[in-house]
Specification:
Radius of gyration: 18 Å
Low-confidence stretches: 23-28
Structural class: mainly alpha
Number of domains: 1
Number of strands: 0
Oligomer: single chain
Shape: elongated
Order of helices and strands: HHHHHHHHHHH
Distance between the termini: 38 Å
Strand content: under 5%
Helix content: 55-70%
Largest sheet: none
Length: 192
């Protein structure tokens, strides 16, 4: 059994209520978790994140699991919002709380590097808007991206990597997972 399989098995054991594995599961590294096991494991990660970061959203943990799964299925925020019956902004903010980044998060009316420099210098959102010649709304959205990205970086992208590991084990197509890693890595360039 590979060390990757052992690590994933330990992660599932920690995140699910299942405490034992059948003999077949122990020997077959290609056994996929059930949908229920996957949702339980994802829900525990979401709950752990909510506890650790104290973020607030109108979405409950089940809806946040939907956001995670849809994000990794390459569904855009508008389609996720339609599925959940909420606004796109609610999904976008929830996705950022979950440290899930899209390439579009770094593109927009606000230069993230310049904003990071201004915020680090103690400027308010209002001051940054004037300095960067952007709307306060655009600056606030960019600030949310920066804040989420910094949290994710401080944790070594623990949660996105855990989500990806669970979904990879469940059969997530590797090209989607690779695309998500590229999106996450693209934000690293903003600060390096």
């Amino acid at each position: 059994m590979s060390s990757k399989t052992d690590e994933l098995r330990e992660l599932f054991a920690r995140l699910t209520t299942e405490t034992t594995f059948t003999e077949h599961q122990q020997h077959d590294s290609h056994t996929l978790p059930s949908e229920r096991q996957l949702d339980t494991a994802l829900r525990r990660l979401v709950t752990e994140m909510r506890d650790e970061y104290g973020f607030r959203t109108s979405l409950d943990d089940d809806a946040l699991v939907t956001v995670v799964r849809a994000f990794y299925a390459d569904t855009d925020d508008a389609a996720i919002a339609d599925e959940l019956g909420v606004g796109t902004g609610v999904v976008r903010r929830a996705r950022l709380h979950l440290h899930l980044f899209r390439e579009t998060d770094r593109k927009g009316a606000v230069d993230l590097r310049a904003l990071a420099t201004a915020l680090d210098a103690g400027h308010t959102v209002e001051e940054c808007a004037v300095e960067l010649d952007a709307s306060e709304t655009a600056v606030e959205r960019a600030r949310q991206v920066l804040e989420a990205r910094r949290q994710a970086q401080r944790s070594g992208y623990h949660y996105p990597l855990a989500f990806e590991s669970l979904l990879d084990e469940a059969g997530l197509p590797r090209e989607v997972s690779a695309a998500r890693r590229r999106d996450r890595d693209a934000l690293v360039d903003v600060f390096d």
